[in-house]
Design brief:
Number of helices: 30
Largest sheet: 3 strands, antiparallel
Helix content: over 70%
Shape: globular
Number of strands: 3
Structural class: mainly alpha
Length: 554
Amino acid sequence: MGRLEEAEAFFRDLSHSLPGTSHVHSYLGRILEMKGDDGALAEYARAVALDPGNLEALRSFASFVLKSGDPKKAVPVFSRLYSHSRRADDARLLARALLMSGRPSEALGVWENVPGGRLAADEEYLAILFACGRFSQVAESALQLFERTKDPQFARRYLEALSVTDRQRAREEYSRLVEITGDREIRYDFVLFQKEEGNFGQALAGLGPLLLGERTEGKYLLLECELLALLQRKEEAVRHYHDLLDRELDSMADPAFIQDILSSFRTFLQTHYPFREAESLLLASLSARTDPFSLLTVARFYEEAGDRGEARSWYYRAYRSDSIRGGPLYAWFCYRNGDNRECEKVMIYVVGTARKVRDLLRVAEVFLQDKDALFRMPRLLERLKARLEEVTEILPSRGMEILATIYLLWGSVSLGKGDCMSCKRSCLAGLDVIPQDAESIRPGDFLALLEECKKRSLSEIPVLLHPERGETGLPEPHDTSLLELDLDENERKILEFLRTRHQATEMELRTLLGSRRVAGIINRIMQKASSKGLVLIEKKGVGKDGEIYAYRNT
């Protein structure tokens, strides 16, 4: 990792001295990706913007956003890449992005029309056919692939397609292939098939071999709980749910799976027991837990039962346990029950403490369920807008759509207050960030608001000729004291020393800190500043007292 940090510092220096070089930003993006740094997205995007003909940059950028779970952003980049390269591997990447974006017909068109004929059939091709509804073709192709390769994944796809077109034959084929392959996942699929058919006893018997062993997979144990419940073996179901929850909550290895278990358990209790008995069983399993998942489960239980006092108490405990996971749901509960003041206060705090982009988007998503809620809380809306603007360069497509929606809402708030200038700026900013395939907002929404703004304007002052910051049209210099750089004590000492002295040698900074590890600290400051679009420290060369560092604030 130390060498990656050195490489990052080197390429950041190059990016400042050669800012218009696509390959420098592409290499920097690759280094940041290897470090797991979200800033890789911005560097890849800069590389592509500087040179759309840099095919390696296009490939790296699109592959990164695809791996990050943002296929919509990858599609136009892969399209450009494939149109230039005409390579089969690039066609495959484009088809994958199209499939993940919910455009399987287009993915099939790419797959079947590469130069020289279609791409070879494989699991990805079968997934595209399945998404296109060509179940008979999937079954036929998957069976051929299984018979040729003996790979169980093809048998699973064959059986899945057959389950749609011919349930009776699928039942027979499941039995046959479970015996032939001995594959655990095929057996698991067969148990699910039997559960769908209502054959709960047979399903439980078929599940038995999967429950043997020292560390049974959690999904097998959850299915066992659900089958016991369906067979009205309630006491056994409660015991198995309790054991499974203890195991998963103690490890916290898979939060998404934990939420699935808790949801299943709560539903089971609500449908099989009277309220007081269900309450007692739920609290026996979860009351001693302090994780947000358990606390939120109890809160929802009470809310659905109509006990708002208990629900609020448990939602609040979830908020105090984990502000990012519990805070938005506690605030949303307050909003639904008319306590807008508490809701806005909590959300402003949560938005301010969210450090990761995915957490910030999770918070925003809660309130985009009801845009009127954000419209009624302008302080929260403004805070969300400011935080998302800080990370615009690394937002995924859904994040850009959320930011565009917030700009639209802020424009409406501004117009309602008679601030036409702010309204126009918001509309223009929203048009700038709205993704090509946005689902919940369209460019026409901004145009309609702009048209209404024009009708209400008493004077036409062009906002693009009169920027908010200063009269010269140039942005005001950043005040580093206000930046959220998260500097530690040694980093602050160095920065203040350089601000005062303007320049210092490595030996002087070692004396200042009483440490030899100055180079690494300087690199961290440069990385944090660069993530905010700043250059605070510049390396001026090497002298007799080591590296020379100069303070800059640009």
